[in-house]
DNA sequence: GCGCCCTAGTTGCGCGCGCTACCTAGGGGT
DNA sequence: ACCCCTAGGTAGCGCGCGCAACTAGGGCGC
């Protein structure tokens, strides 16, 4: 049974005293230090004592002595892939926790309003990003003592190369093309926080449309709170647009909603496809076609990269193998 | 201009050497230690040197010496209040960052699948919860060296007392009662991760209905992926239920969607009210009535509590003053 | 008996910072 | 001349742990 927690925390010295060995021996046992032989008998006594006394190593002291912390910071752009990604990350967090690492996720890539990035205040040992960081961000991390950064600075230059950005946008367009649409619009969101990501997705979509010989109309931002979505739908419809590529499922819902309110039929008068396959896509009436990425695999990959940086373990899967595909629903199929 | 970062990090000893004073003096200046007078001239030289050399204090060392970390962990139940809460917390994070604290939020209260709670691996100085923690959780925190826990163990016993739990559920029922509904159903979600919270909200709703002399039917869990929502809607409608209180907006959308697909009119044949006023509530067609809490004020309060625990600053606002109200939309108003 | 190696440990330093206790020069009151 | 006070510092310990360098105590070949 664990003893009543005294005012002072249990340190490794307490265990040493309790067992009757030196503090170093305790450390060797608890850390299973390679290259150190400790007899099975002693090892057992140390472990028993640690459990009985309720020993928890002092993070600050361990970090200081080791010269690095055990925090891994994961930076996701926007709320890319949203709730499903979060859930999938649990598995990665579990694996990392087993190795003694804490996984902290920062949902938005670029916090606004003068909030210092988490890596400055947390002191993570590793920062993993979905996309590449800007040179300023890298400098800030380095100054804050972050030793390992992934993707490596300059490894993959921009959002365009990150999985699920250009890929998903192209698939949206391909899907509409296959269904016979020849004149499409791209809908974005009025959010300064993710201009970059939106821009990249929109560019990829436009480019793909051009490759396929489709016509596109100018990018428009919609917001369900003002009249912009209703206006956009009216303009598009008058302009002969038959389908809309939306930045994400919220935008798709906004557009589809505005179309329905305007008396148009979705998808007969205006088809809509979203991105990320978030809950709203399947809950909306009609259900929204969307792009789904294999978040489980993505999370597994990110965890593997993190463990590689932290522990030196080999990375098994690869980024580019990520499965991305269209989830066709009634908002395009009718 | 900041110098090129050498291999070794800049320590306060480097500054001391650079300025020509002792390390203690550097510490006094950088921490503005109360009760220590340092001449303005020396202070300026230290600060200049720190900036020039790009000094960043070593968190681990500071934490060790201080005996406490500068991490504040915020535990939110479920994804209560979802994205809006997250956004509102930014302000709190900024204030805390100014005081040198890192705010880490853990979205779900009780992680599943053997993931150790973040407080074990992160070593936060303060843990703030939206609701009270279980005795086991408190013990686990204590063992992990967490010194300050809010709400204080035993301060407010259960979910029922947390703001936005019973309150919101009662308002949902009140709203339906005012609109003339007399026989209602309560819809939950099939998610083991938040049984407690759902149970509390459902209980509060049922109890309120009874107080108002309304009839209720048994609680049902719905899931849009199987046929359970369609079945629930059919049963409810056959049973004379005219309105549904949903655990959250996703559940409300599920129910409303199933009703529409079944050819019922929302709200004429079946009214639905959600909770949290998440994006889907306003994007759905018809837009869903919901419960909105003042997340800005909530976040401000949580930040104030955190700062109080960390810094000893007084707490100005109060928990109970939180503004919770119905956002009436077409899913109940018609 | 002697030198050698191997096992199972121990001693002790260093990590970088917070902070208490101490020191010193100069000034003013008596 | 003496003492005391204060501003403006300095010396150095302690935090708990990781780990390198060292060592006591055998077994073993020659």
UniProtKB/TrEMBL annotation, chains A, B:
Domain of life according to the entry: Bacteria
Phylogenetic classification of the source organism: Bacteria, Bacillati, Actinomycetota, Actinomycetes, Kitasatosporales
GO molecular function terms noted in the UniProt entry: DNA-binding transcription factor activity; transcription cis-regulatory region binding
Any Pfam family the entry gives: LacI
UniProt keyword list: DNA-binding, Transcription, Transcription regulation
InterPro entries in UniProt: HTH_LacI (IPR000843), LacI/GalR-like_sensor (IPR046335), Lambda_DNA-bd_dom_sf (IPR010982), Peripla_BP_I (IPR028082)
Ranges for domain HTH lacI-type: 10-66
Protein name listed in UniProt: LacI family transcriptional regulator
């Amino acid at each position: 049974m664990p003893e009543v927690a005294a005012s002072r925390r249990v340190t490794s010295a307490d265990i040493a005293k309790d067992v009757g060995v030196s503090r170093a021996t305790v450390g060797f046992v608890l850390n299973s230090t390679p290259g150190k032989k400790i007899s099975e008998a002693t090892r057992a006594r140390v472990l028993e004592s640690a459990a009985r006394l309720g020993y928890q190593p002092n993070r600050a002291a361990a970090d200081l002595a080791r010269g690095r912390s055990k925090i891994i910071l994961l930076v996701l752009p926007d709320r890319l892939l949203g709730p499903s990604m979060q859930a999938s990350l649990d598995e990665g967090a579990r694996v990392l926790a087993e190795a003694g690492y804490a996984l902290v996720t920062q949902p938005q890539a670029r916090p606004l309003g003068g909030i210092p990035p988490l890596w400055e205040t947390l002191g993570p040992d590793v920062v993993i990003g979905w996309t590449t960081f800007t040179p300023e961000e890298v400098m800030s991390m380095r100054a804050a003592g972050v030793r390992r950064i992934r993707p490596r600075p300059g490894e993959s230059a921009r959002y365009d190369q990150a999985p699920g950005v250009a890929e998903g946008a192209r698939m949206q367009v391909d899907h509409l093309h296959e269904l016979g649409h020849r004149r499409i619009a791209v809908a974005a969101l009025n959010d300064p926080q993710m201009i970059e990501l939106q821009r990249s997705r929109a560019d990829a979509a436009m480019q793909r449309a051009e490759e396929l010989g489709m016509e596109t109309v100018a990018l428009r931002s919609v917001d369900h709170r003002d009249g912009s979505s209703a206006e956009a739908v009216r303009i598009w419809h008058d302009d002969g647009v038959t389908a809309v590529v939306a930045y994400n499922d919220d935008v798709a819902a906004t557009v589809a909603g505005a179309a329905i309110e305007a008396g148009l039929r979705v998808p007969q008068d205006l088809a809509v496809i979203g991105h990320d396959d978030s809950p709203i896509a399947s809950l909306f009436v009609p259900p929204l076609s969307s792009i789904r990425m294999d978040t489980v695999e993505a999370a597994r990959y990110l965890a593997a990269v993190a463990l590689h940086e932290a522990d030196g373990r080999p990375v098994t899967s690869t980024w580019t193998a990520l499965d991305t595909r269209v989830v066709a629903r009634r908002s395009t199929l009718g």
